[in-house]
Write a structure and sequence with these properties.
heterodimer, A: seven-stranded parallel sheet, 9 helices, B: alpha+beta, 2 domains, 5 helices
Chain lengths: 197, 198
Amino acid sequence: MSSLADIFSLNLSPDTKLYLLLSTPQDINAMSLMVVKKILEVKCTPLVISLNQPCQVLAKSYAKEGISPDQYYVIDAVTHYSGGTCLPNAHTRYVNHPADLTSLGIAITEFLHQMPSPRKCIVFDSVSMLLIHIPSATASKFLQFVVNKLKISEVSGVFLCVENGLDPTILSQMSAFVDKIVNYDEQKNPLLSKHGL
Amino acid sequence: MVFDRIQTGILIIDPETHTIIDANNHAESLLSIKKDKLIGKVCHDFVCPAHCGQCPITDLNTPLHNTERTLIAANGERIPILKTVAQASIGERTYLIESFVDIRDRKKAEKRRIALLAYLNESVLRIKKPLELTGENLRLIEQQVGSGDFTTEEIRMQIRLQFNNVKTMVETLQDLASKAAEERDDIPENFREFFIGK
């Protein structure tokens, strides 16, 4: 397991770094927000792929932390799915359904080309929510496709997931294609995890 | 002949030369070869995958009693079998009596069972953690309602999102229940139809 300090050094070029971040369900939203903040701190532009919260809600959570909408990009796969209005925005793309992997893949490709920043990092929020809609094997193939795209484009990526929420086969596959797996709670409470608490 | 009426393949083998002396009808049928083409053939590399000099009975002295082995049919198909080998004296000579039962159906059922267990496990993972996450999201929505920072539409959208997610998880559960019901044979037929929803 790597330290968070190491993760968020995000030495993007020439090395692309890919992380799988695990946390409890209670911490995953806080972790997502913290990841975006850390990415911005290292002068990198986050592209948030949200399967967990509509972009309007994300924008408000980010605004509370002093993050303005022009600092990040969002691919929103849940606003349409939850019957919300998809407001056109240069920094936001909408996908009709979280299981629409083709549209999700196209949106990622197009946004990565469109984002002007030389330093980009995608935040996939989250693998656990993706698994509601598609089987693990399909999710694994899709994530492998995303990882390949990131590696080719030399873009870093952080995949968020609820701990113990992955099929062991998928976890081993993901372990193979990410650089590091980090347990957020172990990093948050090193003493507790050291004592197995 | 009694042996030709039973659903167990029987081969009589000469332990010194490993040639097949006799076979019953079921052995012929399993091996997909006529008896006249079977008799006189050496058993290893023909009906048994063991190579010459590695006969489990005569060379390796391994007793075979209802042991899982493989039978090679004339068309090359490898058939999983339960094999028993006993020695018997016929006249003044000792022979090996090989009897085997085809367990292809049992193997298929085992594979299905393992696949089902893997599917059950995977489906539970696809429901358990997302449900915990949904619970957490609902708690956050509750806080948002009290904060006054979020519009009614934003709250509604989030509740609808959680509702849709729960609906999808219920569908996964229903699918899981159907798959499990298809495998269980202790469910009465009428209830099974209701359970599977067919």
